[in-house]
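Sequence, please.
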């Protein structure tokens, strides 16, 4: 089940005339990260001027038609003027209501933009009910403070940090009280959006001793879940196939006999079974059976079965006569086995022994649907990866070294990706005293780059390695310190 989700997240804290707010930037950063983990593509903007907010909304407008769900999140100052709501930019003119109105982003404009994009679900979340000092300076009545209730078009949910006409504090921790409660519950697996916001309301009320009650106005026609568990998101295969520890082979079925042989973990049993796997057997098998079979072929290949290794390496040719949906099920199973254990839980250590051979298949255009499948499986775990395996996103690594005494030998100093150092000591037994040179493994450039690809879980055809201290010729040797790694923490 593929979901197309996009979001615009804005956090404004550095106000010129209304006093700086501490939390909105953190709120935007943290909400954006949660949304990305739930599968959203996110446009994030921080400390926006009125012109910045205008440009961001136009960009968001361009993304909406290609998506099923659109979400807008704003943290910062908001106000109602003549019964309409406005979201303040950092340079909003606070001299008076007219000036503020025309130098802010009108909430109705956001609503109308999302309504006309015709996405099936529109979600607007506003942590924008803070008590604005410039509103008080306008000598307004208390009834005109905070945000006003608005019309929610069909398929829309609008969530407020507090009840209409009320205000909320900026908060005392990293996040505003409302956003802190939202972050606590938004990724709850298989929790509908309505129930999620009920949990937010209860947590917020408890945290503020009943002083702040969040509020939603909804006209949603269907159900939406921010975080679907694997079994709920992936409907191509049954639960017993995803959790193949529950799979019970049926001796009457040829594909099941091969699965049983592969589970023996014995090469003399595994190899003949793999050799018997014909296109005819594959075409007669169910998708569930082939998914489990794919898992066990990859497992056998990692275990050293020559026939399984040969089948994996020659997969495209060996499955040429297999129906496309059956071929996909086999490859889906292989990819799934890399990352998920027999209970369909993400592995603590990925099964990467044959990762490079398997992911080289990504270069076959007609096999791309399987890599889309594993991407969808891994979306909620995006934080475990430099780039989610399955996506064709290039990854660039910069390597700094120092010359060693031996010719063409370079001692590894640091490795950087995305502007940050990614080398770290995984095994404390290899720690050395300050100033000491750690023992290191000498390896060829090819082996070093293969080590990076495996530990970073990035296929070599998507990994570019730049050497900052020398021009790569291919015959150099790299000294890689024992106990260190570039695995994502």
């Amino acid at each position: 089940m593929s979901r197309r989700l996009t979001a615009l997240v804005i956090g404004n804290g550095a106000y010129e005339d209304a006093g700086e707010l501490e939390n909105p930037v953190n709120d935007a950063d943290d909400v954006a990260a949660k949304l990305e983990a739930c599968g959203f593509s996110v446009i994030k903007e921080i400390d926006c001027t009125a012109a910045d907010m205008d440009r961001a909304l136009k960009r968001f407008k361009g993304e909406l038609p290609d998506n099923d769900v659109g979400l807008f999140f704003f943290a910062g100052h908001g106000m109602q003027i003549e019964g309409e709501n406005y979201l303040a930019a950092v340079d909003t003119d606070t001299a008076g209501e007219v000036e503020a109105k025309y130098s802010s982003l009108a909430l109705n404009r956001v609503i109308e933009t999302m309504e006309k994009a015709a996405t099936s679900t529109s979600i607007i979340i506003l942590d924008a009910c803070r008590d604005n000092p410039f509103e008080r300076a306008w000598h307004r009545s208390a009834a005109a403070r905070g945000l006003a209730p608005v019309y929610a078009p069909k398929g829309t949910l609008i969530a407020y940090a507090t009840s209409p006409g009320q205000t909320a504090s900026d908060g005392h921790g990293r996040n505003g009280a409302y956003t802190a409660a939202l972050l606590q519950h938004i990724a709850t697996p298989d929790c509908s959006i309505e129930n999620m916001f009920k949990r937010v309301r209860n947590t917020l009320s408890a945290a503020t001793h009943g002083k702040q009650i969040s509020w939603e106005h909804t006209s949603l026609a269907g159900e939406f879940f921010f975080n679907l568990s694997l079994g709920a998101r992936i409907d191509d295969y049954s639960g017993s196939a995803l959790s193949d520890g529950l799979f019970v082979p049926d001796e009457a079925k040829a594909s099941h006999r091969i699965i049983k042989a592969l589970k023996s973990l014995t090469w003399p049993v595994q190899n003949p079974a793999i050799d018997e796997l014909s296109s005819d057997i594959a075409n007669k098998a169910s998708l569930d059976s082939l998914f489990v079979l794919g898992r066990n072929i990859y497992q056998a290949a990692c275990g050293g079965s020559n026939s399984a290794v040969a089948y994996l390496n020659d997969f495209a040719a060996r499955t040429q006569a297999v129906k496309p949906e059956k071929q996909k099920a086999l490859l889906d199973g292989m990819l799934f086995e890399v990352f998920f254990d027999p209970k369909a839980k993400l592995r603590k250590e990925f099964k990467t022994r044959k990762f490079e051979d398997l992911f080289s298949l990504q270069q076959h255009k007609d096999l791309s649907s399987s890599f889309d499948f594993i991407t969808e499986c891994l979306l909620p775990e995006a934080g475990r990866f430099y780039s989610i395996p399955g996506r064709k996103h290039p990854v660039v690594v910069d390597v700094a070294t120092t010359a060693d005494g031996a010719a063409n030998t370079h001692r590894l100093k640091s490795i950087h990706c995305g502007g940050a150092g990614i080398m770290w000591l995984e095994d404390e037994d290899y720690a050395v005293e300050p100033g000491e040179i750690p023992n290191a493994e000498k390896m060829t450039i090819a082996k070093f780059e293969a080590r990076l690809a495996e530990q970073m879980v990035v296929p070599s055809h998507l990994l570019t390695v730049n050497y900052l201290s020398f021009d790569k010729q291919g015959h150099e040797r790299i000294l890689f310190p024992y106990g260190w790694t570039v695995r994502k923490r």
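The chain has three domains: 5-228, 243-384, 395-485.
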